[in-house]
Design brief:
The chain has helices at residues 3-18, 22-35, 40-52, 56-69, 74-86, 90-103, 108-121, 124-137, 142-156, 164-177, 181-194, 199-211, 215-228, 234-246, 250-263, 268-280, 284-297, 303-318. It has 320 residues and is mostly helical. It is 79% helix and 0% strand.
């Protein structure tokens, strides 16, 4: 099969997939594979489409074929790992995710998936290690992953007898998913009566209070969550800083965002908030430094802050 024929098949499969015709796209790739059986890309693409149709075992066979021809394809290893996990082959999935990381050490998604498998199997220490690595590689994930890591670390320490806290957190998560924030708060409040020393309950309820614009209540819960935990995660300081900002306590908020950045030096969001507070207070040099650090960490984000930084630079140049 000529290169142009392969390209034609790929374009046809792409167009069919875009049109929502996955079966047609699979057939187009199958025709191409008959004529170019040594092309690993064709197997990998057909495997991905079979994967999307939840035909896990058929997808795995195609990924096997692709990797037999090109064993150093991290994206194919990642996809096969996902399919293996869906059929319960967690050892095979872990092997593929780890091989993917060997080939692509910055594959945060692979670390995240490894963490999920270890979490599901109850290997909490391994799960924490994998989630931490994912957060280090992609700092924008850290806020979500830190809360999960905190929960797992609490479980490792023994948690609350009778799983009162864990049950409440699961119920609150379900209610939050259903947009019933008031109901989720009620569930957590009842659990706090029974397990008042669990910082997770206060932290989650504080976040929900924040979502309900009950800033004072949120701050009280974040205060409790921080004081009850000997090593509170950066996300708690960040969230309390947000609530403090909303009630006008900018000095307290600044301290929280600075503490967050201290604990999590790659938290671009924390530096961004620090920059806004300094700018509001007229401290242009400090604002400039904070915004520059945020943009250094996450240059593709913060379009508004890029404009603000240009304004700050113009003002500073005008004073020299």
């Amino acid at each position: 099969m000529s290169d142009s024929s392969v390209d034609d098949a790929l374009h046809r499969a792409h167009d069919l997939e875009e049109a929502g015709d996955l079966i047609g796209a699979i057939e187009a790739l199958s025709d191409a594979i008959e004529l170019a059986p040594q092309n690993p890309k064709l197997y990998a693409l057909r495997g991905r489409l079979l994967h999307m149709r939840k035909r896990w075992r058929a997808a795995i066979r195609d990924y096997d074929s692709a990797l037999a021809i090109k064993p150093t394809a991290p994206s194919t290893l990642y996809l096969r790992a996902g399919a293996r996990a869906f059929i319960g082959d967690f050892d095979g999935a872990l092997a593929d995710f780890n091989r993917c990381i060997e080939l692509q050490p910055q594959a945060a998604d692979a670390f995240d998936e490894i963490g999920s498998i270890h979490h599901f199997r109850g290997n909490l220490g391994d799960a924490i290690q994998a989630y931490r690595r994912a957060a280090e590689i992609e700092p924008h994930r850290a806020m979500v992953l830190e809360e999960l890591i905190d929960e797992l670390e609490w479980k490792l320490k023994g948690g609350i007898p009778g799983n009162v806290a864990d049950d409440a957190i699961r119920k609150a998560d379900a209610l939050e998913e259903a947009k019933d924030l008031a109901g989720a708060i009620d569930v957590l409040s009842a659990a706090i009566v029974l397990a008042p020393q669990d910082p997770r309950l206060h932290a989650i309820r504080g976040r929900l209070f924040d979502g309900q614009r009950q800033w004072a209540e949120a701050i009280q819960d974040f205060d409790s969550a921080i004081s009850l935990d000997p090593n509170p995660p950066a996300t708690r300081f960040f969230r309390r800083g947000q609530s403090r900002t909303m009630v006008g306590d900018l000095q307290g908020a600044l301290q929280d965002f600075e503490r967050c950045a201290e604990l999590q030096p790659r938290s671009a969001d924390a530096y961004c908030e620090i920059g806004h507070i300094h700018y509001y207070k007229g401290r242009l040099v400090e604002a400039k430094a904070a915004f520059e650090r945020a943009l250094e960490l996450m240059p593709e984000r913060y379009a508004d802050e890029k404009v603000l930084l240009a304004t700050i630079n113009a003002k500073l140049e005008g004073t020299t």
